[in-house]
Every structure is written in C-alpha cells, then in structure tokens.
Amino acid sequence: MNGHNVDIDWEAARGANLQNWDDRVPLHEAAYGLDAFDDPNHLSDVVSDDLPVLDRFVRGGSLSGLEVCHLQCHIGTDTISLARAGARVTGVDFSEPALRAAAALAERTGVAATWVRTDVLEAGSTVPGDFDVVYTSIGTICWLQDLDRWAAQIVALLRPGGTFFIRDGHPALLALDEDAPELTTRYPYFGDGRAQQWDDESTYAGDGTVAHPRTYEWPHPLSEVLGALLRAGLRLLHFDEGRTLPWRFSPRMVEVPRGYAWPEAERDLIPCTFTVVARKD
Fold this sequence. Notes:
It is a single chain. By secondary structure, the chain is an alpha/beta fold. The protein has a single domain (4-279), classed as 3-Layer(aba) Sandwich (Rossmann fold). The chain has helices at residues 10-31, 45-54, 77-84, 96-109, 123-126, 147-157, 171-174, 222-231; strands at 4-6, 67-71, 88-93, 113-117, 131-137, 158-169, 195-199, 214-217, 235-242, 254-256, 259-261, 273-279. The strands form 3 sheets. Strands 4-3-2-5-6-12-9 form a 7-stranded mixed sheet, with helices on both faces. It has a 3-stranded antiparallel sheet with strand order 1-7-8. Strands 10-11 form a two-stranded antiparallel ribbon. A hairpin with a 2-residue loop joins strand 10 and strand 11 (259-261). InterPro entries: Methyltransf_12, SAM-dependent_MTases_sf.
C-alpha cells in the first residue's frame, strides 16, 4: 500500500530517493519545456510567482546583485530564473545528473551559475561562501527527515541580515487522499519520525517511468516547519497560504493560470501551499 509508515534509517531512505531523482532527470528535461528558456526574458512559473513576495523582503527591493543559494535546485530551471532576476546564483542538489542538466541549460542560455553537489542537510559546511538569500520552493522538505538540521544549514549559509524563503506544498493538502472523490484525509498530518513509503513509476511531470520507483517522504506539520526555523534563530517576517499548486496533486484538480487548483466549489476549503519568509539577524 502506498503511503504507509515504515521504519528506515535516513541513509537508506536518502539512497533510494537519490536513485529515483537521478531517474527523473531525462524525463523532466523532456517535460519541463526547456526550449522556453531560449527566450532570455523567460522565467519559470514558480519563480514568477515567488518573486513578488521575495522582493518585498530583500535589500534594495529586488534580487539584483544579491548572492542567492537555491537549495534542492533539481535541473536548474528556477535557479536560472533567479539569475535572470539579477541574482548571482548557486544551485545545490544531491543528484549529479540533475546538476549536469542544470549546467548544460545554463551554458546553453548564457546564464552564469555555480553548481554544488551536496546533501541539503550538509550544505552549511559544504557550500562555499555566504548568501543574501537562501531560497527553496515546491516539493522540497517532504524529502527531509530532520528539519532542525535543515534549518541549521540555512542559518549557516545566510550572512547577517540575510533572507530565507520557502514556498511548498501545504501539509494539510498532503494529508488528503489524492484519489478520493471528495476532500478526505488519508495520511498523517503529524509525523512520528517514520517515513512514508511510496512505489510509483511515474513522476509529477511527463509520461515516462523511472527504473527505481520506491521513495520515502516525511510529513511535517506547519508547527514543525516554523518551529525549526525559529529554534535555529531566524525571525519570521511573512507567512501566507495559497489556493493553487504548480503540479497536479490530484486528478480532480483543474488547470488554472500557472498551475492547478481544486474545483471552484472546494477552493476555499483547503490550502494548497504555504509561504514563509524569515531573516537572520
């Protein structure tokens, strides 16, 4: 059964997830519409949505000239978009094939970027330099077991006065049964330290299949996310919840501009994303 809780150590779960994400790279290169980046003004939908919020909380009101570290950058479409918004970018990911694809896209489109292969939970000691902004967005922290360790990396990467930004799938959404005919809770909202085991040959983009379908995720309630950031010493600046997603969580979701949402009659019943902006004093 998909989504059942299992006891598995972090390294074994991370290894399975890495194999799966390596497999996703060619599928996502085909599905992400990379040719659109040949237009030097093109930004990913994710960054297009995030920038108006992020710009409100960074020095000078824009990313222009700022050092930005993008955690869990995958094949770099959002990283390149941040660079096109004026940032000097460093993309961080644990997948070597993903970073090769990111570097190839950056070279093809003439975007300057630095790429670092490391685990996000070790980024504070393995990514050189310090940053004005640490950015992560959409589909990230469910892959991490220990959010206190994650928050510690963010603090280590930020220079004093630096800004952290995250937008991700809302944990209330992720507790729903994606295949049910109505909004029905199926999975735990609160975690107990165990991983959720999934077996799925498909990915959230494209029609291809992966050779390593087993993955492991961890549920993190909002209290855990915010608590980890606050315990690490960050100061909360902004919190928001959204009604749309950049991917189709459920077959019942309908396409809307730049993403997907529940049918209109249900749209106010459940949040789809949350956004947090915090600062290192």
